TrEMBL record:
One of its GO terms (biological process) is protein polyubiquitination. It comes from Otus sunia (Oriental scops-owl). Pfam families: FIST_C (PF10442). Residues 20-58 are annotated as: Disordered. InterPro entries: FIST_C. This is F-box protein 22. Residues 204-343 form the FIST C-domain domain.
């Protein structure tokens, strides 16, 4: 996918994915995060017979027509094929890396300058298509796909990005960096989504333990997984995009959600969950958390070894089970190289924790972690 192609696709992501109606009549979608956009799978650029056919409008003007609030934080995830293009020779590795960077920059240019952005590349995608929150979530294990979640400013909720990279000269992680990132000494911290990159590198797993273990507190939901790479990272304190690490570096990026109104829950689907009955039993555990479903987002972080192969060629098993119990909660996520999470509930007055400080209780393989994040009932600030 060349840069020009992606620019058109990005307009589709941030424009056509945002609305429910036809061009110029998009409506705020019900449910989900207040004012947040619920995108769908990557669509081809507008063409003859498609809505929006004709000359492309300037990217940001398209966004302003379709998105009802300015995004303050954006999480986008795309499969590796979308970001790497279709290079056929291994000797083109540098060209693929350059193409990924250009693709990410093209997308970032469509967003407000002070918008926090985190972009990830993963082997597969989980996405709820545009339109209604009751649309069927899709597990897309092959082919090009992606989504962008746009979070506006929400009263009582603070979302921020973070990044910890492994120091090749020091085997011990400096835990003072947690406080600098707002992950310690923060009584309102409720949810931390963590994404390890280059997990195959030497020392990557040990480094991930050094990040996860100190954050494993009973009042915080930890969830996420291992991705192939990250392509965008800006923060409130540093609106200039991070210089992406060299290919041999490893580390952790993520999003932290703080606010007393936030409620969240996670469940772990282990290797024994291998059919419809056991998948639905796991969703029943998540349902029992009684997390409000309005202004709530679902995340699914699954191993590449699951999906239709794990369920004996039955596709979309876990996404279908989620929709059965949460028909009005949009589901997003990815297939990756390892999962982070356990059974845990964090609400205003109740905490249930079924994993302890033992490091292996949070890092898994061949599993799926399902997460609900409720952002409260306040309306998004549209200023």
């Amino acid at each position: 996918m060349n840069k020009n192609h992606f620019t058109k696709l990005a307009v589709s992501v941030l424009g056509r994915w945002a609305g429910r109606g036809g061009a110029g009549e998009a409506s705020p979608p019900p449910g989900g995060a207040s004012g947040a956009v619920r995108p769908g799978p990557a669509a081809p650029p507008p063409g003859p017979g498609r809505r929006g056919s004709g000359p492309a409008a300037p990217p940001f003007s398209v966004c302003s027509q379709k998105v009802h609030v300015l995004p303050q934080t954006v999480l986008y995830i795309a499969d590796a094929e979308t970001f790497s293009g279709h290079e056929e020779c291994h000797e083109q590795k540098k060209a693929r890396k350059r193409n990924s960077k250009e693709t990410a920059i093209a997308l970032e240019k469509l967003l407000p300058k002070r918008c926090q952005v985190l972009g990830l590349v993963t082997p597969g995608i989980v996405v709820t298509p545009m339109g209604s929150s009751s649309n069927q979530p899709q597990e897309i294990e092959e082919g090009e796909a992606g989504f962008a979640l746009l979070f506006p400013k929400i009263d009582g909720v603070k979302i921020h990005t973070f990044h910890f990279s492994k120091d090749l000269k020091n085997r011990v992680f400096d835990e003072s960096k947690f406080a600098e990132a707002g992950l310690k000494n923060n009584p309102d911290l409720r949810v931390v989504l963590l994404f390890g990159y280059n997990s195959w590198k030497s020392g990557a797993t040990r480094f991930l333990h050094q990040i996860v273990n100190p954050l494993n507190e009973k009042s915080i939901i930890l969830a996420g997984g291992q991705v192939e790479s990250f392509t965008s990272l800006t923060s409130e304190k540093n609106p200039v995009r991070w210089r992406l690490p060299p290919g041999d570096a490893c580390g952790v990026v993520g999003l932290a959600f703080s606010g007393p109104q936030i409620q969240s829950a996670t469940v772990l689907l282990d290797q024994d969950v291998a059919d419809e009955r056991t998948a639905e039993a796991a969703m029943q555990r998540l349902k029992a958390a009684n997390i409000p479903e309005r202004n709530t987002i679902g995340f699914m972080f699954a191993c590449v070894g699951r999906g239709y192969r794990h369920y004996k060629t039955k596709r979309n098993m876990e996404a279908d089970a989620f929709r059965k119990f949460f028909p009005n909660v949009p589901l997003f996520g990815f297939f990756g190289h390892g999962e982070i999470g356990c059974d845990r509930i964090v609400t205003g007055n109740f905490v249930l924790r079924e994993c302890n400080d033992i490091k292996d209780d949070l890092l898994h393989g061949y599993t799926t972690v399902m997460t609900l994040i409720h952002l409260g009932s306040t309306k998004a600030n549209q200023a």
